[in-house]
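Ticket opened by: R.M.
Priority: normal
Category: complex prediction / small molecule

The reporter submitted a protein together with calcium ion and asked that the result be attached to this ticket for the collaborator who will pick it up next week. Submitted input follows.
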Amino acid sequence: MSKKIQILVVEDEQAIREGLIDVLVFHQYGVDSAATGPEGLEKALTGKFDLILLDIMLPGMDGYEICDRIRTADRDQPVIMLTAKTSDEEIIQGLKLGADDYVGKPFSIQQLILRIEAVLRRSQAGLELARSIALDGIELDTENLTGTRSSGEVAFTKREMEVLSYLAQHTDRPISREELLVKVWGYAKNLDIETRTVDIHIAKIRRKIETDPKEPKNLVTVRGAGYRLVTRA
Ligand code: CA
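Result attached by the on-call engineer:
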């Protein structure tokens, strides 16, 4: 028997927290929980969790700050944000701070479990990264998660570098959003999930690698087909 996968639930609403714990225990996960921001941060930083489910609106410290501090301490820690409203700003802010994915409340249990399984599958499989990627105006170091341009250094999250690596390894064809969800996020194929995770990550990446993100030259959209990375030979 392999060791139980450990999940930390940080959620202040008692009914939701207890509901999540019940569901996760039922699915054979080991679960710890926190009801406030500071308690959640403390557990996240001192414990060892395969995944953290993080609410945004929390007493004491919000989920954004917690995510940011977790990411500073451990850039590989998988985090799924639980967002009350699926407003773009909330989602973008969460993903900007390094969350792997988000689930909008109210969420169905089935959707949540599928997301959890996807994030875990991804973090355990590990994607092979291209070592360095040369683009127009920027040189990417995938190991150190940095990009160097004439104006200075840019920091990337692991997930952003994985997206770039996958695209760099397949420059011969456009890569669809669905393919990225399967190959980079670990989603099961044909999973009927509504998510803007890929689009939001692409937008974030463009802000870092493009001289003009509105006129992308490195990461281009191929209409109706997906995305293509234009690398320098
Ligand atoms: Ca809350």
